[in-house]
Amino acid sequence: MNKIVVLTGAGISAESGIKTFRDSDGLWEGHDVMEVASPIGWERNKSLVLDFYNKRRSQLLNVSPNEGHKALVLLEKKYETTIITQNVDDLHERAGSKNVLHLHGELLKVRSSKNENLIYDWTDDLNLGDLCKENNQLRPHIVWFGEEVPMLDKAIEITSKADILIIIGTSMRVYPAASLIHFIKPKTLVYFIDPKPTIRENLYPNLTIIAEKASIGVVKLITKLIG
Prior knowledge:
Blueprint: E1 3-8, H1 10-14, H2 33-36, H3 39-44, H4 46-60, H5 67-75, E2 80-85, H6 91-95, E3 100-102, E4 105-112, E5 119-121, E6 138-142, H7 152-159, E7 164-168, E8 189-193, E9 207-210, H8 214-226
Parallel strand pairs: 1-2, 1-7, 2-3, 7-8, 8-9
Antiparallel strand pairs: 4-5, 4-6
Helix pairs in contact: 5-8
């Protein structure tokens, strides 16, 4: 059975109404990225960071998977499929995908600020005074700037075995996720789906660009792949 790896970015979730964190001016919802997505920002103003992610969590609970998310589920009927996502939402899982690896963490989970192995499901607001079982403050289960990406090695291992790599809604400029394409086998087929492609077809062997938004381009490709 062919192995398919799908790498998804903010573009696929944006169609469900989730704002992409980084605006054109480089701010995240009016905040400098280091204020709300770095260990330094966390130490400086925990209340601000918690409020920022509480708002993101609330927004997530009021949106639904789109046709792009739903179409990817169909791949599992014919192929061994893994989704590696840069997104922190759970829209792939809600659509029905069973094998999802989150590179940058998950918005609906929190973890101990001292013991990264203590992780909890969380759908409510997270506040100062919410503690793990070791009595340490809980923080968003998000990989912040300056932190290691703990799932990267696993993502590299999975990508290196792919027969087909599908890239959806990402600029391929955010590292280390953008580096995954360098670990594929020489004959791996690559499909890049984005309305404004940032790479050229002659940049990689066996690359096909589908210049469509995810809800259209993914459906077209999946229809082709599953026959």
